[in-house]
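Fill in residues.
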């Protein structure tokens, strides 16, 4: 049910993008304005991705998904009214396209977080490939339906159809009875959830590699799609049908490759798929740029679609496997921000290049950029740092307290005292560097390691949590990988007793009442 709903939502997205891009060509001849249609549809994901990811992690995901569908329906209806009243202009079209993109920004992180809830971890790559089939089937269906509606009735009725389908999707999602997981702790606060999401990604080396590779790829790959309406117009007999046919070719290639991806993953690593797919996509961009007609361009667009899905799926799988469930929507929203932000920047950049020179120069320039990016990022690997087991672990229990503690009390200071053989100090500090990243990924405000100047064997780990409830949340966020890291730390401890753990809560002090002696 959710897959069909997602397919329909993506069909609506492509119908909107095709209708908006084609409508813009009738409002202006500027390559920059035409390319900015893609920027306007993708930029909201860059701007609103993190807030929407935080909401998807702290709110009921089913209800949030429903709201996003009705938002898209309302925007589509507004566009329809403006077009039918003959009040549309190029700037207004960009603004309404941006508003539609806000719906995409809100709904993508919640769906990305829902997929791992529905399938076990070993089947996740296949499930994500199935989502790739959905996305690229919509890439075929959406443009073809939009092209047929535009040719028969006009652009306004594409937006009418979008509104109807979005409302239907909203009511279908209402039928889904999602299993609610009980929460022992209150939900996270909005700004705190955003801080923790950013902090988690900042401390994840695996996410660093994924974000760099996805940004470089889409900065280059966005040129072909952004400038495709103008390329279609320049081809022999080019028009709306040519444009939608080329977009459909891109989708056909992506679906074909998605069905073959399991075998490709057996032959190549994810790093090899990303590198080779990027090179193939760059080469296809050059060939399409010099294609005189649709007969040459169409098969090359199919190849470009195959390369596109190979890269995108490999990077999406890497991102999903690098994120635990409790922060998945926020992490995937940051991933989507990098993807859409680079797409928006690329569309604007290559559109400006085309405006200052010509279409072929812009497309060849994007292909050369893609080649340089592959060479420059060849040492940034997706699998070289190893994959951690992010299965939730309940081996560490919440600490007992002498008296009830206000959940909002804080900050909370935690110290852990270790006894370490000085001969193993270097190895211990290396493990504690991994511990620093793990503690910060879990949401700690700060972390330090201290050594006693009078006793070289005594080390104190210090970390600070924002409040008592945030401290308790870190126990819920403990994973099997954290268990393994804890075991490595404890192997260095040589004391007769386990490391001494203390937890202290900050107390308010009125400085105005303090005596000079106390000061």
């Amino acid at each position: 049910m959710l897959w069909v709903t997602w397919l329909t939502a993506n069909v609506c997205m492509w119908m909107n993008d095709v209708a908006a891009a084609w409508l813009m060509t009738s409002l202006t001849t500027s390559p920059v304005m035409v390319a900015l249609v893609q920027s306007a549809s993708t930029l909201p994901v860059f701007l609103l991705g993190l807030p929407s990811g935080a909401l998807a992690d702290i709110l009921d995901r089913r209800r949030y998904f429903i709201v996003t569908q009705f938002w898209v329906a309302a925007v589509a209806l507004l566009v329809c009214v403006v077009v039918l009243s003959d009040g549309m202009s190029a700037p207004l079209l960009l603004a309404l396209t941006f508003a539609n993109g806000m719906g995409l920004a809100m709904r993508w992180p919640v769906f990305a977080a829902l997929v791992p809830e529905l399938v076990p971890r070993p089947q996740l790559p296949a499930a994500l490939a199935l989502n790739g089939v959905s996305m690229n089937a919509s890439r075929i269906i959406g443009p073809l339906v939009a092209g047929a509606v535009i040719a028969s009735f006009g652009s306004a009725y594409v937006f009418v159809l979008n509104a109807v389908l979005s409302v239907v999707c909203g009511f279908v999602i209402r039928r889904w009875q999602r299993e609610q997981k009980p929460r022992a702790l209150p939900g996270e606060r909005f700004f705190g959830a955003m801080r923790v999401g950013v902090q988690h990604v900042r401390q994840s080396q695996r996410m660093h590699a994924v974000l760099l590779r996805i940004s470089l790829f889409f900065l280059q790959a966005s040129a072909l799609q952004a400038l495709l309406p103008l390329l279609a117009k320049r081809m022999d007999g080019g028009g709306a049908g040519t444009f939608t046919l080329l977009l459909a070719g891109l989708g056909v290639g992506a679906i074909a490759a998605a069905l073959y991806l399991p075998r490709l993953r057996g032959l190549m690593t994810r790093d090899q798929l990303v590198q080779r797919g990027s090179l193939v996509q760059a080469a296809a961009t050059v060939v399409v740029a010099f294609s005189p007609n649709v007969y040459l361009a169409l098969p090359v667009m199919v190849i470009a679609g195959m390369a596109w899905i190979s890269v995108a799926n490999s990077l999406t799988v890497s991102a999903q496997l690098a994120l635990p469930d409790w922060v998945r929507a926020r992490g995937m929203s940051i991933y989507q921000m990098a993807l859409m932000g680079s797409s928006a920047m690329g569309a604007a950049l290559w559109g400006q290049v085309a405006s200052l020179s010509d279409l072929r120069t812009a497309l060849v320039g994007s292909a050369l950029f893609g080649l340089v990016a592959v060479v420059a990022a060849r040492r940034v690997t997706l699998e070289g740092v190893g994959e951690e087991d992010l299965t939730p672990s309940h081996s560490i229990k919440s600490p007992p307290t002498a008296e009830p503690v206000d959940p909002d009390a804080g900050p909370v200071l935690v110290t852990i005292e270790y006894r370490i053989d000085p001969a193993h100090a270097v190895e211990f500090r290396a493990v504690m560097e991994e511990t620093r990243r793990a503690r910060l990924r879990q949401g700690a405000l700060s972390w330090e390691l201290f050594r006693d100047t009078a006793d070289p064997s005594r080390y104190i780990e210090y970390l600070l949590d924002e409040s008592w409830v945030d401290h308790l949340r870190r126990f819920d966020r403990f994973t099997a990988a954290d268990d393994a890291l804890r075991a490595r730390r404890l192997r260095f401890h040589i004391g007769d007793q386990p490391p001494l753990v203390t937890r202290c809560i900050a107390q308010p002090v009125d400085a105005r009442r303090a005596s000079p002696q106390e000061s």
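The mean pLDDT is 84.
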